Amino acid sequence: MKKGISPQKIAYLIFALIGAMIMLIIFLNFSSQSQGGIFCSVYSNVYNILPQGDNPPPLPSACIKRPETSIDTTRIISQEKSIVEDRLVEYIVSCYQKNLGYRNITIPCYTLKIAALAGEISELDITDNMEASGFICDTLENSKIIDANDRAIDYSSVSGKSCGSQDQVTWVVHKNTIQKGDIVEIKYTDRKIKVITR
């Protein structure tokens, strides 16, 4: 007497077919959509649940949603150093806060023309300004600064003060100081801010 396929084998076959269909849908959805789909949704949920530490693994580039950006171009026309410092710190903090959720991408925020500054502004000046606010360094830390000799040194060793334990402000400034006539770009890059002159 011949036996047919058992109900248990039919159930396994159905589960295998369903699993194969889900994998095919995920693959097709992922390959046809550069900005997400089911794969990115599942990946992002798992990514957010797991502990990430200081250097989380990068999301696949297809899963990173870029924000709509328009670069704000502004002239800072004050000659007074303290006012220009205050404005630069405002733009640095604003860029950081607006983009804090994004990782593994660079987002340009501001292009600033320093029109009339009397004197020059160093990373030490900017960090002193951040630290003096009493709260900025709790949000955006800058533990290392670039000195006049192009060396990264601990901020606390120069000032006797602290601006956190991480170095989240990257200073890429010609001759290490911002001067009259400089064009300053402020960009967000993976939980850090870049200050660049050209």
3D structure, described in words:
It is a single chain. This protein has 198 residues and is α/β, with parallel strands linked by helices. It folds into two domains: 7-63, no CATH class; 72-197, no CATH class. Helices cover 38% and strands 21% of the residues. The protein has six helices and nine strands; from the N terminus they run H-H-E-H-E-E-H-H-E-E-H-E-E-E-E. It has helices at residues 7-32, 38-49, 81-99, 123-132, 136-139, 155-159, and strands at 72-76, 106-114, 120-122, 144-146, 152-154, 169-172, 177-179, 183-189, 193-197. The strands form three sheets. The chain has a five-stranded mixed β-sheet, with helices on one face. The longest helix is centred in the N-terminal third of the chain and has 26 residues, at 7-32. The chain is elongated and about 95 Å long. The N and C termini lie far apart (87 Å). The model has no long low-confidence stretch (mean pLDDT 84).
